[in-house]
Amino acid sequence: MSSETGFDPKLYDRFPTKGPRPKEELSELKRIWCAPRKWEHLTVVNNNYVGLYYVGAAFLFFVLAGVLALVMRTQLALPLNGVLPQETYNQFFTMHGTVMMFLFAVPAVEALAVLLLPQMLAARDLPFPRLSAYAFWAYLVGGLAFFCSLFFGLAPNGGWFMYPPLTSKTFSPGINADFWLLGIGFIEISAIAGAIEIIVGVLKTRAPGMTLDKLPIFAWAMLVFAVMIIIGFPSIILGTLLLELERALDWPFFDAARGGDPVLWQHLFWFFGHPEVYIIFLPAAGMMSMIIPSVAQTPLVGYRMVVLALLATGFISFGVWAHHMFTTGMPTISVNFFSAASMAVSVPAGVQVFSWIATVAAGRMKFNTPGLFALGSLITFTMGGLTGVMVGLVPFDWQAHDTYFIVAHLHYVLIGGMVFPLFAALYYWTPMMSLNALSERVGRWVFWLMFSGMHVAFLPMHLTGLMGMPRRVYTYLPGRGWDLPNMISTIGAFLIAAGVLLFCIDFARRFRFSADASAGNIYGGGTLEWLPTGLYSTRSIPVISSRYPVWDDPELAKDVDDGRYFLPGTATGVRETVVTSPLNAEPQYLQRMPTPSAWHVWAAVGTAGFFLLLTVQAYAASIFCGVVAIAAVLRWLWDTDRPLKDETADIGAGIRVPTYVTGPSSHGWWAMVILLIVVGMIFAMLVFSYLFLWSRRPDLWIAPPSQSSFLLTTSGYLAAAAIPMLASRALFKWRAGAFVATVLMIAATGVQGAAFWQDFASWRAAGLAPEASGQGATVYGFLALQGCMLAICVLMTGYLAARTACGMVDARRRATFDLIWMFFVYTALQGFVAAMLVRLAPGS
Amino acid sequence: MWRPTSIPSMLAEALAGWPPPVLDPAGPFNTPIVVLSWALFVMAAGVTLVVAIATGLALFGGPTWKRRLGGKRLVWIGGLAFPLVVLSVLLVWGLTLTSRLSEAPPPGEMRVRVTGEVWWWRVAYLDGQGREAMQDANEIHIPTGRPVTFELESADVIHAFWIPRLGGKVDMIPGRRNIARLQADEPGVYAGQCAEFCGGPHALMGLVVVAHTPENFERWRQSRLAPSAPPADPLSQRGAQVFEQSGCGACHAIAGTTANGMAGPDLTHVGSRRSLGAGILPNNRGTLAGWTADSQTIKPGNRMPAYKVLSGADLQAVAAYLESRR
Questions:
Q1: What is the mean pLDDT of chain A?
Q2: Using a CB-CB distance cutoff of 8 angstroms, which residues of chain B are in contact with residue A399?
Q3: Do residues A467 and A604 share a domain?
Q4: Quick one: which of A19, A190, A219, A618 has the fewest CB in 10 Å?
Q5: How many CB pairs under 8 A join A and B?
Q6: Is B56 on the interface with A (CB under 8 A)?
Q7: With an 8 Å Cβ cutoff, is A366 touching chain B?
Q8: Segment holding B269, helix H or strand E
Q9: Per-window interface: A 21-50 vs B, CB < 8 A
Q10: Could you tell me which residue, A361 or A842, shows the higher pLDDT?
Q11: B132 and B185 share a domain?
Q12: What is the pLDDT of residue B2?
């Protein structure tokens, strides 16, 4: 095997080491990783705790949204029933969809990733523990406040898809829609923070020797999941921003009368919304591919095909969004493309299903609760996938679209494809972190109630839909034959609820958190999370040479726990983990990890407060919260980028790696690149919006500003992109390089600000108003995005100047500078492209 | 408030509802979809069976079956080859049918413009030059045996026009004009409903399509073009007065009178409609009076204010007047 980083793979032969380890090593490790107690526990960052709370919060939202569903099913049990008034029903179904998608499904799988990935990869923790904790707190605080809008009758009522113009100011004058738009805002931030954490974690903190070919399937699935979030979520972020701008400032992005188009929203929404379904399904499929081999006691059949299937699903899923729009009157050619892609995306799902069946056949399946849920998922998901194929065919979709047939289809896919695997996972992984496993006897009841309830509730809905019952109706008239199937569906819903309730009771009775005295590997799993662990994950970090190391090396658990592998204690006396290379997982350097802190908690509370207070139009309080959030983030960052005195450290068996790196091998560089991809996607979706609206109503477009403004703006942006490159060189060159570099960065900010102002002023002078047309809205949309980025650049410059003044930047200690530098160059280039685009295409 | 009668009666009703409208084609724009649908149901049931049997054999089969199924070969055949074949066949079928059903209407086809409004349907019959020749609401009359083009628009939010037995649904989107073509082979009444969530009482936004034989349709058309007679009996005459004095004409139009409002449904022929409140109530003097007095209880959120101020006698008179507008 050739080396990726210059690391000599022969060094792995030094492990497991011989001889006993010093006694105090383990107690030192425990002391360093111990969690804060009492009130200070709120500042905890360790993935065992944060992951667990995260899963708990997601489950809470699952139950809450489920209760909404029960009330709705009660309302629909009989025609013209009077349980829920119309307006309340509309709020309930909107919240059911929104909460299940945004506050349950995505956070639940991110939460499981935070909880499980470090153990599975034998990392001490994920690379940005405070970011995970921040994502969790923003989600919990914001999510709860968002949910409470229901109790004040202020919950959004336009459906989870929020189609304008129903959700525009004219038809939704209240703040209900704003709750959705701004409430979902911080959940998106939280999801993206989690995704960055997962990508960097999976690629950079694997156990040495765990090449991509040996990565547990769950980690593969989470990697694809996180990449899909990075590509897909920016679209909905932009969509919500545009709709909020239309509502608040009357910029007509979606107003057909002024050259906007409501269909633009549908494109933006579903470009996120359909991948979202796979974003939810893939991690669950990853869990299935972990659980089935364990309960069947045999390796997964077709590992590489399953990995390819995950990648293919991720790829194809971005080409199917418009199959939600077959009835909007799209041209036949586009309809055909999306229909074909929708067929294609079911092939990789088939590969995974048959891989699971083959695994079952190759082994000897045990009918324990995780096994039952896995089998239930397999059959239910298959059925949902098949109705998916049906609605992927356009003529059938014209009939089934927006009827209860779709309600049935999507619940088969999501419950079969996500909820059942999640319950399998809850049963399967509970013994990893609890003193007791959950009850198998109760578990069977839970499974059969949920499984039968699921089919009783949703199988008849296919028929209800074919009988002509549309979705999203708060009531229906008698005499159409809809009564009986609706009554049956309601009974099924309560059966599911009984199963979930039983689960909650059993969980409350038997779950007792413990990092180091857990019930252990009772299902006989073969992957690293079943090694003995503490809050620091495994005592030492093993060298991996197979996909199921626990099965293949019977001594592994003992050797790991005796500290015979990498990092048996602490190398530098602080929290740390080994950062490895992305392909072959060769040790690269020792990352010093953050400790508990109040700052990310304040940042999260500030973020959630900013969005929510903005919704209720408490502007002063909202801005205060925003300032708190930014100040807390800066304070949190201040502690980072502190090189240790020792430039290298011994991570076991005399192998020494650096303790500080910057540039492409560092975890910070990866995170910044991913963040810039997020921003780039937001920008790309705005470009799409611009061209889309232009294609609709070019007659409303006015001529761009003068040539001279064009030259000034673009050359300004190019200069602003070039200066940071000079600054980067300066930092290396002179003793006072830090000072020179900072001055140059301040200059770059100024030049960029001037270019921005020139751009803005020239459009004003050209007579374009944002309220005037689709052109006005999108051009000022570009300016608004650029303005926000510029404001961040200003903040970054200030931060850099402060650190320079404190002597915290120099030629060696340059991680902070390098990250800021990348952001600057990107921002200037984005401004350049935007200025070109709006003047040259379309020209006039 | 409606109360359930009994489970057997619900069952009888459900059985009477078979075949469900979507699978009960009444014209050439739905028949091929229904054929495709049945093929899809058979496919779905068949594949579910294959997966269930494979899973069963994988679980309980003897060593031979386990050996056969427990390898990568199964993934290649079952997971890749099998779906590719099935899906390709279906896709070709689906695409062909899609283009056949989306063919542009030939010139000279009868055209009806339907505009979605919160929460009712504005109907206009177009003449050969595309001008609106006749106004109506919530009920569309067509001749049997030939396709009719529907120009679908929206006055406010997105709605969707859907007559399940006649064909698939098409969205009505502000700023766009979508086309749907439908044909009924037999005379009859075909129920439809708004399928895209449009807020408030979206659940109560129905419409009906009434298909006549070509001769009857022509007779119906002529009767519509003739001016309607002024109210004949004293009660209706009084109703006409109340209608005028209460300001009903600000929102509703009745041809030949001063009432020319455009906000609500045209009432020139309201008495001849089969239903009231956009497909939710039977149409008779009692429901007309009830709707006028308190439509907000019947269809909460609709744009017509309740006229509880009218006395019982006035309501009866207005109802009689409206009933006479045939």
A1: 94
A2: 22, 30, 33, 37, 164, 168-169
A3: no
A4: A19
A5: 298
A6: no
A7: no
A8: none
A9: none
A10: A361
A11: yes
A12: 43
A623 with A719, same domain: the answer is: no
Predicted TM-score (pTM) of this structure: 0.95
Do the beta carbons of residue B205 and residue B193 sit within 8 Å? yes
> What's the average model confidence in pLDDT over A800-805?
95
The count of residues in chain A is: 844
| Shortest Cα–Cα distance, A282 to chain B (Å) | 17
Q: Which of A527, A316, A328 is nearest to A429 (CA)?
A: A527
Position A225, amino acid: F
What total number of domains does chain A contain?
Answer: 3
Which runs of E-coded beta strand occur in A654-780? 656-658
Please check the confidence at residue A484 and state whether its pLDDT lies above 90. Answer: yes
- Model pLDDT, residue A731: 85
Question: Distance, in angstroms, between B282 CA and closest chain A CA?
Answer: 12
| B194 and B266 co-located in one domain | no
- In which residue are the tokens 């066949």 written? B89
> Which CATH number characterizes residue A506's domain?
1.20.210.10
Interface of B with A in 205-264 (CB under 8 A): none
Q: What's the pLDDT at B172?
A: 98
**Percent helix, strand and coil across chain B, each rounded to 5?**
45, 20, 40
What is the rounded average pLDDT for all residues in chain B? Answer: 93
Is A354 in contact with B36 (Cβ distance < 8 A)? Answer: no
Residue A624 CB neighbour total at 10 angstroms: 15
Residue A720 lies in a domain: yes
**Does B47 sit within 8 Å of A393, measured CB to CB?**
no
Asked, for residue A490, whether it belongs to a domain, the answer is yes
Measured torsion, CA atoms of residues A469, A472, A477, A482, in degrees rounded to the nearest 10: 40
Are residues A481 and A353 part of one domain? Answer: yes
Identify the domain containing residue A202 by its residue range: 56-318+348-510
Cβ(B195)–Cβ(A403) below 8 Å: yes
* Whole-number pLDDT of residue B1: 40
B2 within some domain = no
- B1 in a domain, yes or no? no
Residue B35's closest chain A neighbor by CA?
A396
pLDDT at B5: 52
Which residues of chain A lie closer than 8 angstroms to B53, CB-CB? none
Q: Is A700 on the interface with B (CB under 8 A)?
A: no
Is B3 inside any structural domain? no
How large a percentage of chain A has pLDDT more than 90? 87
Alpha carbon distance A219, A201 (integer Å):
9
Q: How far apart are CA A182 and CA A617, in angstroms?
A: 11
CA closest to B60 among chain A residues: A361
Domain at B286, CATH number: 2.60.40.420
pLDDT digits (tens, 9 = 90+) for A553-589: 999 999 999 999 999 989 998 999 999 999 999 999 9
Q: Which of A371, A379, A353, A370 is nearest to A452 (CA)?
A: A379
Are A472 and B167 in contact (CB < 8 Å)? no
User: Can you give the residue range of the structural domain that contains B238?
Assistant: 234-323
Res B8: pLDDT: 66
The closest CB to that of B197, out of A362, A375, A472, belongs to A472
Q: What is the pLDDT of residues A620-634, one digit of tens each?
A: 999 999 999 999 999
Predicted local confidence at residue A3, as pLDDT:
84
* 566-595 of A, contacting B, C-beta below 8 A: none
d(CA A270, CA A189): 19
The answer to whether residues A364 and A478 belong to one domain is yes
Sites in chain B below the pLDDT cut of 70: 1-17
For chain B, give the percent of residues with pLDDT over 70: 95
Distance (Å) from the alpha carbon of B163 to chain A's nearest alpha carbon:
9
Chain-chain contact of A393 with B10 (C-beta, under 8 angstroms): no
Residue A669: inside a domain, yes or no?
no
Query: How far is A694 from A771, CA to CA, in rounded Å?
Result: 15
Give the count of domains, chain B: 3
Q: Decide if pLDDT at A104 tops 60.
A: yes
Residues A772, A624 share a domain? no
Residues B216 and B133 in one domain: yes
Chain A residues close to B149, C-beta within 8 Å: none
Whether residues B128 and B212 fall in one domain: yes
- Is B106 contained in some domain? no
